[in-house]
Amino acid sequence: MNKDIQILVDKGEMLPLMEEFYTIQGEGFHKGTAAYFVRIGGCDVGCHWCDVKESWNANLHPPTETSKIVENAKKHSDTIVVTGGEPLTWDMTALTTKLKAEGLQVHIETSGAYKLTGIWDWICLSPKKMKLPTKEVYERADELKMIIYNKDDFRFAEEQAAKVNKNCILYLQPEWSKRDKVVPEIVDYVMKNPKWKVSLQTHKYLNIP
């Protein structure tokens, strides 16, 4: 990457764009609604069960001008979901400022491991044990999405739920490869602890991106 492009990436004026696509939100509070997804490359959180590991290496994804991302996004939907990788690896100020200037609703899906930048209408926080969220993200999160891979994840979920704001909606979501085992455990847990809700990756059942 040449020096001039690197400066723009560091400012968030260009971002390593992995992919962008129009689909149905499959998870959490907004599941079932149409949205345009912008997947930003780069993540060092390192979840072993991540289903988009190809997003981890930012160098594999071309630095793209935020204005071009916005131009594409506004053609498809009023709701834009910024995901990754870990989008907060980068400064999200420029991208979200331009999206909001077009009157769009802007959501983020994040582990919260890095400084919260950008203007967000909805923050989906999905903490990971390897790199915990910042205090600000806990305070600002609209939904907490905890991925359940094994029994210890229920303990971790409660630990994280104690840190978010009182209005944050709490979700338990099975890790896809373990769904047959953990779904019954999640159902049982939510029935005993009704402050939680069940989230499923409905887009995978629908066989869409």
From TrEMBL:
Subunit structure: Homodimer.
Pathway field: Purine metabolism; 7-cyano-7-deazaguanine biosynthesis
Keyword line: 4Fe-4S, Iron, Iron-sulfur, Lyase, Magnesium, Metal-binding, Queuosine biosynthesis, S-adenosyl-L-methionine
Binding site for [4Fe-4S] cluster: 43, 47, 50
Protein known as: 7-carboxy-7-deazaguanine synthase
Source organism, top-level taxon: Bacteria
UniProt catalytic activity: 6-carboxy-5,6,7,8-tetrahydropterin + H(+) = 7-carboxy-7-carbaguanine + NH4(+)
GO biological process: tRNA queuosine(34) biosynthetic process
Organism: Flaviramulus basaltis
